[in-house]
Amino acid sequence: MLGSNILEEGMLNDTLTAFRDNSNSQTPISATQGVMLLDGWLQALDGDSNIDQLRGMLNELREALQASQPDESYVRQLLGSLADQAQTIAEAPTSEGTWTGGLVSLSKILRKFSINQ
Fold first, then answer.
1. Which residue among 12, 27, 48, 103 is the one 20 to 30 A from 40 at the CA level?
2. In sequence order, what are the residues at sequence separation of 6 or more whose Cβ sits closer than 8 angstroms to the Cβ of residue 57?
3. Is the confidence at residue 3, as pLDDT, over 70?
C-alpha cells in the first residue's frame, strides 16, 4: 500500500520539495526533472500490485514528457488525473500515517500545475 515503505515516503518528500522550490523560484520544472521524479516513483512503487493503475498513469506521463515536443494539454490532463488519484489514495479508508497529508498536498500541487502550466 502506498506510504508503507521508506522509498515511497522519500519520493513524496522529494516531489513536494521539487514543486515547492519551483513555486518559490518561478522556474518551471523541466521535462527532464519530471522524468527523474517519475523514475523515482516507479522504482519506489515497484512490486505493489495494488496500484497498477497509478503506475500506468506515471508511465504515460513519463512517455509524454520524453516526447520531442510534449503535448502540453495531454500533460496537463495526466497531471489532473494523477492529482485525483493521489487524493483518492490519501482519502481511502485504509490510508493512515503522516504521509496522507503529504499526498493531499501533492494532489493540490498537481491540480494547480494541471491548470496553470
1. 27
2. 78, 81, 82, 85
3. no
